[in-house]
Amino acid sequence: MENLILSFERIQSASHRILDVVLPLYSEAFPPEERRTTSDLLRMLQQKEMFFSAILLEEQVVGLIVYWRFGGFNYLEHLAVLPSRRKQGIGEMVLKELQKEGAPILLEVEIPHDDDSTRRVTFYHRMGFSALPVYYHQPPYRKGDTVVPMMLFSDKNDWDPEILQVSTELFQNRVYYKNN
What we know:
alpha+beta; Aminopeptidase; 5 helices; globular
């Protein structure tokens, strides 16, 4: 996998040629409470900080990534690999590519309660991410939904508590229901 070319193709239009490939993965990979409705997602594609992108490996779609660039950090909202391409090191390649931007990464991880959620936590630990020592919940994506208890992870372990709080409030205010 080392010599293969990985790239991201940003999707900023509902008519983008790859959207039909990644939208089903988006819906299948994340439960409704952890993602936007399709119409909300399509409405947000042109947000300048949001990068909704197909993951391409050798020009073939193998997954999707949604991340946000916020000055001093990146917030990784979603990462999913097509079921037929899982366990091939693609997720690791994607994180390494995102880390090349040089900004610390913040992301939410489901509290381990089954094999899948435990596997995700193990994956992020293996990639050098750690749970930050803060109480955390994911705000709702839709009016009427409730918060989802999660863990906040980062590849930077020494966040100043005040900067972490401001950073968390920033992505929560931009990404979730309040401003959609």
